[in-house]
């Protein structure tokens, strides 16, 4: 018959096993930073991935110019994509980008969003490979913008592998432009690969593992409760028998 010590041992084993599984599937979520809080204040190191927005303030003054430098780790590269985008001036001044614009730039001054920056009404599609160092900038012209643009930029630190080689240990193969992302960036809800592969294949497995842990945990607790109740009933009956 199971004793209390046996039950405690089983409980500890289950907790250890769950912790081990959780550590094996550790996921890293991006922090959000606001560009205007970092303008011209040096380099921002991207560790994993990060969400960059223009500002927390609902409105920005005219003649605002803000540029932030983003840096990947040694031998790594940065890739950037715009998840959400809305710029009021796009709808009121569609002639050019003199009133307001955003830009993504590489260290050798390649302007990813066009020579004059970007200010159209549609979200810029695609993912841009910036290299080890990249820049994000926001410019407002001589008129105050109606409201701060809603730009949600995802910047991910990746590693570009050689052709016909696999990714190094700890990295996930995006199957796109030789990009490998850290395993911790898979299944975090953010499209770091640029083709959603990091949010597709393994996530089903992770969801299954988590569901298995939850179901297993519930069954385990039920067994403990039932055994406890049976043990209590048996003891009570035994005491009653001795008293008679
Ligand atoms: Ca991801």
Oligomer: single chain
Order of helices and strands: HEEEEEHEEEEEEH
Mean pLDDT: 85
Q: How is the main sheet built?
A: 7 strands, mixed
Low-confidence stretches: none
Fraction of helical residues: 25-40%
Shape, principal axes of CA atoms = elongated
Which radius of gyration do the C-alpha atoms yield? Answer: 27 Å
Counting DSSP H or I runs of 4 or more residues, the number of helices is 3
Number of strands: 11
The structural class is alpha+beta
* Distance from first to last alpha carbon: 25 Å
Keywords: Disulfide bond, Membrane, Signal, Transmembrane, Transmembrane helix
Signal peptide: 1-26
Transmembrane segments: 209-230
Please provide a written account of the structure.
There is one protein chain. The protein has about 240 residues and is an alpha+beta fold. It has three helices and eleven strands. The protein has helices at about 5-25, 90, 200-244, and strands at about 30-35, 45, 50-55, 65-70, 75-85, 100-105, 125-130, 135-140, 150-160, 170-175, 180. Strands 1, 3, 5, 7, 9, 10 and 11 form a seven-stranded mixed beta sheet that branches. A four-stranded mixed beta sheet has the order 2-4-8-6, with no helix packed on it. Strand 10 (about 170-175) and strand 11 (about 180) form a beta hairpin. Helix 1 (about 5-25) runs antiparallel to helix 3 (about 200-244). The longest helix is centred in the last third of the chain and has 43 residues, at about 200-244. The model has no long low-confidence stretch (mean pLDDT about 85). Calcium ion binds near residues 186, 190, 192 and 199. Calcium ion (CA) binds near residues 185, 186, 192 and 198. Keywords: Disulfide bond, Membrane, Signal, Transmembrane, Transmembrane helix. InterPro entries: LDL_receptor-like_sf (IPR036055), LDLR_class-A_CS (IPR023415), LDrepeatLR_classA_rpt (IPR002172).
